[in-house]
């Protein structure tokens, strides 16, 4: 009987020691930021870019102007995606976030797509959109859809197939 209690206690102790190691999440950053640059002379390679020396970082590394300007729509899908990512806003490197502005034409769409490691938040600045996403197999591939008007916000969960269509 004492041996069973001792074995149980040993297993319980082992689980208590290893459980914190099994909790999955992205690691905490080792520094406040890692402004992305393309030249290796500037530092450590992180997330596909080299980190700019933190002493050389300026406020402009975290700023981008011009997203308020509509872009022309002249393609078969009827939309123009303007991406804001580490390539045009270097301060986004390693922060796990990006942003897009999508301009839609009449009957335009943003074809079905996924964001494997990120949740998408959509804000409607002008017009009306039909949006939705499809859940995974474990949930029966259910379709969630909603008509959005100016000022509305919609969240697309991480990794699911999502779409946006203009609605006139």
TrEMBL record:
One of its GO terms (cellular component) is apoplast. PROSITE patterns: GERMIN (PS00725). Residues 65-168 form the Cupin type-1 domain. Residues 1-24 form the signal peptide. CDD domains: cupin_OxOx. Its main location: secreted. GO terms for molecular function: manganese ion binding. The keyword Lipoprotein does not apply. It comes from the Eukaryota. Keywords: Apoplast, Disulfide bond, Glycoprotein, Manganese, Metal-binding, Secreted, Signal. Oxalate binds at residues 110, 115, 120. It is found in: Secreted, Extracellular space, Apoplast. It holds the Pfam family Cupin_1. Disulfide bonds join 34-51. The keyword Metal-binding applies. Mn(2+) binds at residues 113, 115, 120. Belongs to the germin family. This is Germin-like protein. It comes from Brassica oleracea var. oleracea.
């Amino acid at each position: 009987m004492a041996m069973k209690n001792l074995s149980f206690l040993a297993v319980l102790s082992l689980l208590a020691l290893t459980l914190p190691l099994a909790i999955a999440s992205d690691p905490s950053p080792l520094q406040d930021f890692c402004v992305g640059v393309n030249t290796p002379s500037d530092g450590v390679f992180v997330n596909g870019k080299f980190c700019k020396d933190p002493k050389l970082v300026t406020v402009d590394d975290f700023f981008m102007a011009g997203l308020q300007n509509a872009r022309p729509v002249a393609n078969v899908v009827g939309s123009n995606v303007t991406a804001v990512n580490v390539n045009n806003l270097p301060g986004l490197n390693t922060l796990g976030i990006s942003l897009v502005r999508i301009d839609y034409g009449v009957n335009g769409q943003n074809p079905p797509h996924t964001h494997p490691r990120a949740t998408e938040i959509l804000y409607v600045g002008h017009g009306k959109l039909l949006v939705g996403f499809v859940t995974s197999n474990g949930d029966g591939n259910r379709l969630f859809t909603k008509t959005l008007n100016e000022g509305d916000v919609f969240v697309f969960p991480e990794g699911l197939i999502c779409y946006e269509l203009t609605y006139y």
